[in-house]
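To assess whether ligand presence alters the predicted conformation, the chain was also submitted together with 4'-deoxy-4'-aminopyridoxal-5'-phosphate. Input:
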Amino acid sequence: MSKTSWQEMAVYLNGEIVSGSEAKVSVFDHGFLYGDGVFEGIRVYDGCIFKCKEHIDRIYRSATAIRLDIGMSPEDLTSATVDTVRASGLRDAYIRLVVSRGIGDLGLDPRKCSQPSIVIIVGGIVLYPEEVYQKGLSLCTVSVRRNSPTALPPAIKSLNYLNNVLARIEVADAGYLEGIMLNHEGYVAECTGDNILVVTDGAIRTPADHCSLLPGVTRNAVRDLAVKRGIPYSEAILTLLDLYWADECFLTGTAAELVPVVSIDGRTIGTGEPGPVTQALLKDFREIAGQDGVPVY
Ligand code: PMP
């Protein structure tokens, strides 16, 4: 993926494409003041916006949940995204789509903001070193619980990521790259920026959507690949023991793709090496990545 610095990145800002250094939003934007807005992370593989429709659908669902009118149609937002990728000239990239409540006087009431701010950044992202995909990742469980859906539903991909940031601080302090978050009931929810899945006796299980998590586009893509291979896939309520005792474990996410996990809280998972189901799905994933989406060029 590109190593473009942020100053040089192509950015769509309310109808115009500008460079990263010119792309500025107001300090009175409620996205900045209150984290009031929604976002998406999307990948471009070989000039194709991977699962574009799924991401666009999710940002509209997130916006509906917070009663934010994006003010343009999904088709127009898709076209703007395609135009911004084209302006970047990149064939492999990471897209950050942000729709905030927009500029308004101080005070929480969203009615103070008459127009949302729409931002599309096209650049790069590298989450994990290549070694992690070969050898696998070690995880720890953090003490910070994932937001309760009765407070701030994690299924809304909102600009309010402090719950995950607090967890990530704990992960970094403990010397890990990613960590597991439990939900308010103590069941496994997800990682700070990725979904988690296990393989036991040849079947894949992952925490169900009501367990306080963001239902990932990548997780759904992997589900479809598993079904194609005839691997049983189900969503369930999982405890930490279900993870410790699994034969294999892996994470999914737009930036992470599919990451093997070989150790959790000091317990070795399976053989301690990326397992065969994980490796097969990673191979399948890399094969479909450049094909399943909206072409840019
Ligand atoms: N959970 C959280 C909290 C996330 O932020 C993300 C996205 N980085 C995911 C899961 C994975 O979702 P997706 O596969 O749609 O990127």
